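Translate structure to sequence.
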């Protein structure tokens, strides 16, 4: 089988394929999903959204204590509501984040102890107190204690730290006798302290229940296995444990959001069955760079969604090089009950042969369907559609029980998923993979700009950039970047531009083809000029070579790369039922490998399949259930009867949508979704149509959709904005609010951007107010959307926004669409 992947550079393609081996007979134990956590991954209840959070099956997060001064949001008890309702595991409480300064102000242990008391009393009173873990000290080797110095100094500081550890440990247990406590939580793996710490803690009966340290070096990809092995040996020597391990900060800026980097970290943590949380280098609330806005997947999100989809046991994976930085790595699982094997891999460009050994005939039969998909890097703030299936082929299992999947033209920043399912009768349909090519900005013709190097191994905390370079300082009147491209046929092409914009307003460039009349490309704001986002536009090109020029517009934009992809019509995706999340005990039927090749999921009463469906924008899409009998679809709280193969017109919000399918008895092969977000049949109301009270004002703005927005809303019970909505029929609607705000609190951190969310109380008719959270939009002039399910009566409905105690976001417009639209 050959995966038809986009061509890599010629030097990589010319090299002999690397070999990654998966042994399905060598179990490593149940899939743990320990490495999907995040430090400050949640900022508020609703940021990230439930639909973005639930599919990831997060096992642990780390957050600050309630009311902690270190950051303006991310309080553990506050975010626990959304975390637990979306299936989250446990929350590490970073107790010293009660302090405002970084490094923490050292006011002495006597100042800290009353704070410890308050934190423990609040957490232990929570109904879910057993799901919290106390971390009393954060990076004590560098903060409050000097544990990295010469031996004499070390011993003095060590003894002081150990006394304080015992004091705080006992203080926590005095209030919460069942408390789970983690530590020592150093900046890295330091065996000198660990030996002394564990010896002391065992003797004094103050052992942590969870061992924590940080892996924040690019060298960690090389060194962690040695750290883990020596730590476990130390436990055995001292007669301790084995303790649960949580590497509660891992990865560098250059790794976050990048599927090909993340797979390297995750594979080594999952292999060793340790928990791990990604580091918090930038803004809270986006799962450390893997969720765009509040609800939109990027490439990193899709990788973690794949990781969350592993079931059964992980099995041994042998990469071309073990414990090496920036190399091809992978992890794999085998679920004999589902008769599925999955392999996630990435981290290297070029060609690879994935050799799967011991493919059992009793589980898979004589043939398997091998399905290959790619999750590409789309930037920290760049949307990523459902990963494209690159190959779907039926393969005979060799006499020695092996299946070889050749992958050609791998991209270094991408991750790939291979799924093996029993072959069955028939032939799977080969996917239609459109022509695509990428062009680096640093390789283009540059006028009035400068090439910068980003995110290398030696500068691991630089931001990721495609090819480790981008083009900035495009701030002259003559600044432009000319890309020479060659396309195979005449037609429409999708142009994806990886960019950065820190201007504080939407920025523009002028796009022209072969020197023709330019069109304006508008780029939403980003956190900074290296925090990459993605802008999608289309261009018409004739077959042959062209020059695409991006010239300076109203302000400065940084360019990283452009991707050209042949537009093949209305966007569409097919979601395989046998890879969906399940509830109940459905069965898996692989008697036929026709179509998608992955068989069918057989649902009976009490069973459920949940699909994660991507929408590029808010609006209506065509959803077709490929089923053997009638099913029921649940979306946004609405249940819709669906006949086999009959199209439904459903309203989806921008980003991820969770669609649940139930049935009395039906075989489900897929959900087929197409469309680009039609607004035909929706209700739309601009800011000027609202009735304002109590100081809320209509403010002129060139960036608002109709030239004005509702500002000065909230901060008083009387300050409200009321829309009168005329619904043509009663039922469940999606209310989409287009808003902006840029609330921040600068805590003086060199590397954290302390953005804040705003909330608004939404009231429909005479119903109870509902609090809706609106994430910071990076600037006051960039408008994002949040979708909220509401129930409307036929005819006139009052929809009111307010906030009696704080400012609400600026509101540009609202749109409403019936969940089940008219065909």
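Result:
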């Amino acid at each position: 089988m050959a995966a038809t992947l986009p061509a890599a550079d010629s030097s990589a393609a010319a090299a002999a394929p690397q070999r990654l081996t998966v042994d399905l007979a060598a179990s490593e134990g149940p899939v743990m999903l320990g490495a999907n956590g995040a430090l400050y991954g949640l900022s508020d209840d609703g940021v990230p959204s439930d639909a973005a959070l639930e599919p990831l099956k997060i096992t642990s997060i780390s957050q600050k204590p309630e009311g902690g001064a270190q950051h303006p949001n991310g309080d553990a008890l506050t975010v626990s509501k959304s975390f637990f309702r979306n299936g989250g595991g446990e929350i590490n409480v970073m107790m010293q984040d009660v302090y405002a300064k970084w490094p923490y102000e050292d006011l002495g242990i006597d100042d800290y102890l009353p704070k410890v008391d308050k934190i423990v009393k609040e957490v232990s009173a929570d109904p879910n107190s057993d799901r919290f873990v106390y971390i009393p000290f954060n990076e004590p080797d560098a903060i409050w204690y000097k544990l990295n110095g010469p031996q004499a100094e070390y011993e003095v500081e060590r003894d002081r730290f150990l006394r304080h550890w015992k004091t705080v440990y006992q203080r926590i247990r005095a209030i919460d006798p069942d408390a789970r406590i983690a530590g020592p939580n150093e900046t890295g793996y330091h065996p000198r302290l660990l030996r002394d710490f564990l010896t002391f803690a065992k003797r004094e009966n103050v052992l942590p229940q969870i061992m924590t340290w940080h892996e924040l070096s690019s060298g960690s990809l090389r060194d962690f296995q040695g750290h883990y092995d020596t730590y476990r040996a130390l436990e055995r020597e001292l007669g301790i444990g084995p303790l649960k391990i949580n590497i509660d900060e891992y990865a560098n800026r250059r790794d976050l959001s990048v599927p090909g980097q993340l797979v390297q970290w995750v594979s080594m943590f999952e292999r060793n069955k340790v928990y791990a949380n990604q580091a918090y280098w930038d803004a809270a609330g986006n799962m450390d760079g893997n969720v765009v806005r509040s609800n939109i997947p990027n490439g990193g999100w899709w990788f973690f969604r794949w990781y969350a989809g592993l079931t059964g046991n992980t099995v041994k994976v042998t990469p071309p090089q073990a414990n090496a930085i920036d190399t091809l790595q992978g992890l794999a699982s085998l679920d004999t009950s589902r008769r599925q094997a999955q392999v996630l891999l990435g981290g290297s460009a070029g060609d690879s042969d994935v050799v799967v050994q011991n493919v059992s005939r009793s589980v898979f039969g004589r043939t398997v369907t091998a399905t290959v998909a790619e999750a590409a890097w789309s930037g920290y703030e760049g949307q990523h559609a459902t990963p494209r299936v690159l190959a779907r082929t039926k393969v005979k299992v060799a006499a020695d029980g092996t299946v070889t999947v050749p992958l050609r033209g791998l991209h270094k920043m991408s991750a790939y998923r291979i799924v093996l399912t029993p072959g069955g009768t028939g032939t799977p349909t080969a996917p239609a993979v459109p022509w695509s090519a990428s062009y680096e900005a640093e390789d283009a013709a540059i006028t009035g700009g400068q090439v910068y190097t980003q995110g290398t191994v030696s500068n691991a905390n630089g931001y990721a950039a495609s090819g480790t370079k981008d083009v900035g300082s495009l701030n002259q009147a003559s600044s432009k970047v000319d890309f020479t491209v060659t396309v195979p046929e005449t037609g429409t092409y999708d142009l994806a531009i990886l960019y950065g914009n820190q201007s504080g307003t939407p920025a523009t460039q002028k796009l022209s083809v072969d020197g023709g009349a330019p069109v304006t490309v508008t780029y939403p704001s980003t956190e900074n000029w290296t925090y990459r986002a993605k802008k999608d536009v289309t261009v018409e090109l004739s077959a042959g070579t062209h020059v695409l020029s991006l010239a300076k517009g109203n302000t400065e934009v940084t360019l990283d790369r452009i991707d050209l992809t042949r537009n093949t019509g209305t966007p569409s995706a097919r979601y395989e039922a046998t890879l969906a999340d399940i509830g109940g005990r459905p069965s898996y039927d692989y008697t036929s490998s026709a179509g998608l090749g992955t068989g069918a999921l057989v649902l009976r009463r009490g069973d459920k399949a949940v699909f994660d469906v991507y929408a590029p924008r808010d609006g209506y899409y065509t959803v077709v259930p490929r089923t053997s009998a009638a099913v029921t679809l649940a979306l946004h709280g609405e249940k819709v009867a669906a006949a086999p193969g009959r199209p439904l017109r459903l309203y989806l919000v921008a980003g991820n949508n969770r669609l649940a399918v139930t049935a009395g008895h039906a075989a489900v092969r897929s959900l087929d979704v197409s469309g680009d977000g039609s607004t035909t049949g929706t209700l739309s109301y601009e800011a000027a149509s609202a009735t304002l009270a109590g100081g809320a004002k209509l403010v002129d703005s060139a960036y608002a959709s109709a030239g004005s927005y509702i500002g000065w809303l909230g901060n008083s019970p009387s300050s409200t904005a009321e829309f009168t909505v005329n619904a043509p029929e009663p039922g469940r609607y999606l209310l989409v609010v287009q808003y902006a705000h840029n609330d921040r609190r600068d805590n003086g951190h060199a590397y954290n951007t302390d953005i804040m969310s705003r909330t608004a109380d939404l009231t429909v008719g005479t119903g109870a107010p509902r609090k809706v959270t609106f994430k910071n939009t990076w600037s006051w002039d960039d408008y994002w959307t949040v979708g909220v399910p509401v129930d409307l009566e036929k005819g006139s409905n009052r929809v009111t926004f307010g906030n009696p105690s704080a400012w609400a976001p600026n509101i540009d417009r609202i749109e409403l669409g019936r969940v089940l639209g008219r065909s």
